[in-house]
Write a structure and sequence with these properties.
alpha+beta; two-stranded antiparallel sheet; globular; about 15% strand; binds zinc ion
Length: about 80
């Protein structure tokens, strides 16, 4: 019951304003990014709600840019995470 209420509250929370700030580009390699755990995924993302992650059916993982790059991931073209 409580979980349902929480889910409703989350759904009604307006999305955060687009974070296209220059600060994101200045992020260090230790900046956390998000990637789909699926073996057919190749990109890493700046935000977990990126549309590039919408189709991800496996676990969503958090990693540093350095770790993601080491795994052969490249920055998502939609949310443009730090490199
Ligand atoms: Zn993305």
């Amino acid at each position: 019951m409580l979980a349902t209420v929480l889910a409703l509250i989350l759904l009604q929370t307006p999305p955060r304003p687009a974070a296209a700030s220059p600060a994101r580009k200045a992020a260090a390699a230790g900046h956390l990014v998000y990637l789909c755990g699926g073996s057919r995924s190749f990109a890493y993302h700046a935000a977990p709600d990126c549309e590039g992650l919408a189709w991800c059916t496996t676990e969503l993982r958090k990693a540093t840019v350095a770790a993601a790059t080491k795994q052969g991931r490249y920055p998502c073209g939609r949310c443009r995470p730090a490199r």
